[in-house]
Amino acid sequence: MARSQPAPRWAVLLSLVILIGCIVVPSWAVKHGDFKTCEQSGFCKRNRAYADDASAQGSWNSPYELDPATVHFKDGLFTGVLIKTTTADEKVRLPLTVSFLESGAARLLVDEEKRLKGDIEMRHGSKANKKRYDEAEQWVLVGGLEVSKSATLNAQSETGFTNVLYGPGDKFQAVIRHAPFGIDFQRDGQTHVQLNERGLLNMEHWRPKVDGKEGESGEDESTWWEETFGGNTDSKPRGPESVALDVTFPGYSHVFGIPEHADSLSLKETRGGDGNHENPYRLFNSDVFEYELESPMTLYGAIPFMQAHRKNSTVGVFWLNAAETWIDIVKSTTTPNPLSLGTSSKTNTQTHWISESGRLDLFVFLGPSPKEISKTYGELTGYTQLPQQFAIGYHQCRWNYVTDEDVKEVNAKFDKYQIPYDVIWLDLEYTDDRKYFTWDPLTFPDPKGMQEKLDETERKLVVLIDPHIKKADNYYVSDELRSKNLAVLNKDGDIYDGWCWPGSSNWVDCFNPAARVWWTALHKYDKFKGSLSNLFIWNDMNEPSVFNGPDMSMPRDNLHYGNWEHRDIHNVNGMTLLNATYDAMLQRKKGEIRRPFILTRSFYAGSQRVAAMWTGDNQATWDHLAASVPMVLTNGIAGFPFAGADVGGFFHNPDKDLLTRWYQAGIWYPFFRAHAHIDTRRREPYLISEPHRSYIAQAIRLRYQLLPAWYTAFHEASVNGTPIVRPQYYAFPDDEQGFAIDDQLYLAATGLLVKPVLTENTETADVYISDDEKYYDYFDFTVYQGAGKRHTVPAPENKVPVLIQGGHIIPRKDRPRRSAGLMRWDPYTLVITLDKNREAEGSLYVDDGETFDYERGAYIHRHFHYRESVLSSEDVGTKGPKTAEYLKTMAGVTVERVVIVDPPAEWKNRETVTVIEDGAKAGSTASLEFYEQQLGQASYAVVKKPDVGIGKTWRIEF
Ligand code: NOJ
User: What region holds the DUF5110 domain (predicted)?
Assistant: First the structure.
């Protein structure tokens, strides 16, 4: 036997390094074992197997047919009974409705007759509701349900089909196939969305468990009944009850939306293969500790709304179901017949939606543009709330500011270093022993004094209030929750007990109207003692996060108000808390009505009406910084644009390069907040050494300079549902090269195109430009032009690459202040870039930034345009009872400067412009200065002190 050679020195060293690495490098990876894969989730596994069976059998026939005797169409409603024929030749009746809505959307709704009638037996003596959950819409939908009066039957339907013409100008048609059941949705004669085209419709009907006879049904029952995961057994008293459907987008190769996942904007395929995912995208609101990137794993929130996009056409679907949902995506390319000329290959995106329980409730949108989809979807689920002005400033958070003195010191330091901020946050530890609605008497003895100090500079405080209530004696919140029976119950009907931050806890059940009333009362100033009117709320852990629960949440057989099982309502659960908190904020004091501000971690479709969201516990790594951009963009196209990520990264310590770049990116998140884990080092911007401190301060000031543009963008979102920051495809829906781009963004319709630096040691950015307009560097007006290609823009560490597309007028405020509130009366600067026709336009929305008076006309909404050498401001607002009074308060607020980028060369010789304000007796003049620049950088001209009123109609003639 050969003697073993001693290992060479390098190998010993290497092993040592690896060994040390194993000991000291913390593991930063998500615990996969804590969260189900599709294979571990019975209903997902069954439906995937169903899909495999269907595609394996060449001539698969979906066993769902409309009973011809039941089919009926009247007043925009198509009704009928779907018959499912089971393997045992049993006929299951499933009542179906397709509603054609005035908005142009269509809704397919399918329920189960037996369960509607309550004609089923529950196992384990369960008291759970027998119906399929039919209340999700009460939480989610707020409008857009008016049924179309003009929808008509198309006389040319073939036998066995019902064709309905609907939508604007009857351009849409639903071709309803009776057997097997399916619907093709067409626009202008072309099919854009197909339901049950692959035959994967599956409504698992109720059936009894026949003990001792498992398998006799001829089906694999191994996942039908009790299911165990993570040490918890789900009793599943109604057995299998999933609902699934395939939705195909023929000719579409990109699909977007269905947050929340840490993944690319353009969603990936999910059935394996190179670069694809192995698991479907999962929607099951969960507290995923140290989540991983490029993953279809579920995260904290869920919006089952998807947009499919191809050149010049966008369509969408919204799957209204509150239970756990998985979505498989595959793309198939059809190759054309080589003999037929003029045809090209096309990609179809096939999706498969699978939910654990509930009804089949699907909305179909036919666009044709992304903006139209945003509008119609927003009519249903509501638009983003118009936040208070302070809420779009900078938020400073960490877990935790440790005393009220600490808060005051941080506040003072921001001023000392001249860094603006609006809100300071208190995480968990401000409470007395993690009892919400209390203050730690030792560390926060004077909460009022602290809030009053903040108020001196119009700053606010946000405190954390979670839905788990510490189970403790002598804590009135706990006593009341329990004695009034307002908590979530376990499957046996007893108060559910779980583990969270405070230890043993109970959860408020906001499905219960009485619980919401109670929750509202807790926030009143006399109950939440020490809170003042500049205090707002952060609802965290509302998935709900339960440390000892399955999938880090509640057992699915827990019971909520109405005896709904937790499985039925899981994904809307977090939103019910937000609604209650929203009401609470409105009712803190009689007569004091200001717009609430709430931050939420868990969300569902509709949460945009009441809260902002953030992407949860990210990490201080370059990859997480990069991932935040598509995540925020995705939220925007899914109708919840008030979104952001923890600036700096929650876990671990960013170095100053990463932190600087994160601030430069973070100023473009609609919700802009720095946050950090309790174990991290302090990293308030003023603590960072120079020159990075100045770089960060400059970035934050840029956010404040553009607050007028941001607020206008929020206003647009609040009336049209448009994203506040938009991806390339949304801004240029006909440029195929841009569809998958998700590392640059546009600030609403301002023409600002931003490409934040998201990688280490990078000093340039390659900005993709779609059209042939000129684009000007925001800071020095360097010109970039050339459609369909990338342009290299310098990005030294003190600069975030921002371009302005030609053709825009951007409102700004250029005077640095300590907070947004202090900028209220500051004058405006307008920056103009001209397009190819030497024209430009833009808009500005302003109100008091605080109350709801804007609903009664207390606002200014101006449209600016520049045409034929005249800049004018026109009113686009509607008047209301409060308009005149508001305009009076704003009478002294003017435009102090107009900057025109790339003006005509002949302006060099001009010294003045004529200013004509409506109502003024005569025009006046203002000075014009021309600044010539070196080659490659556009010249610019500045009108100084035109001093026209921001709320007035005026013209400036050049
Ligand atoms: C979890 C949240 O995601 C995090 O932001 C917060 O700091 C901790 N909970 C503590 O409250």
Answer: 832-868
Distance CA 381, CA 385 (A): 12
> What's the gap between Cα 912 and its chain centre?
47
Q: Which residues pair with 656 in a beta bridge?
A: none
Amino acid at 12: V
pLDDT band with cut points at 50, 70 and 90 for residue 390: very high
Per the structure, the count of domains in the chain is 1
- Residue 585 domain flag: no
Domain containing 55 — which CATH number?
2.60.40.1760
Asked whether residue 338 carries a pLDDT value surpassing 90, the answer given is no
Residue at 402 is within a domain:
no
Q: Is 692 in the pocket of ligand 1 (CB under 6 A)?
A: no
pTM, rounded to two decimals: 0.96
Known catalytic residues are 540, 543, 617
On the question of pLDDT at 20 being above 60, the answer is no
**Cα(373)–Cα(394) distance, rounded to whole angstroms?**
31
Q: Quick check: is 235 in a domain?
A: yes
Q: Could you tell me the two tokens for 474?
A: 């002598």
Q: What is the pLDDT of residues 547-594, one digit of tens each?
A: 999 999 999 999 999 999 999 999 999 999 999 999 999 999 998 899
Q: Best substitution site from 617, 618, 624, 680 to test ligand 1's pocket, by max atoms within 8 Å of Cβ?
A: 617
CA-CA distance, 86 to 217, in Å (whole number)?
10
Q: Determine the Cα–Cα distance for residues 770 and 734; give it in Å rounded to an integer.
A: 9
Q: Which domain holds residue 331?
A: 39-381
Q: What pLDDT score was predicted for residue 25? A: 42
39/25 Cα distance (integer angstroms): 31
What confidence tier does 23 reach under pLDDT thresholds 50, 70, 90? very low
Give the pair of three-digit tokens for residue 18. Answer: 């690896």
766 falls within a domain? no
390: closest CA among 642, 586, 600, 597? Answer: 597
Q: Whose CA is nearest to atom 11 of ligand 1?
A: 428
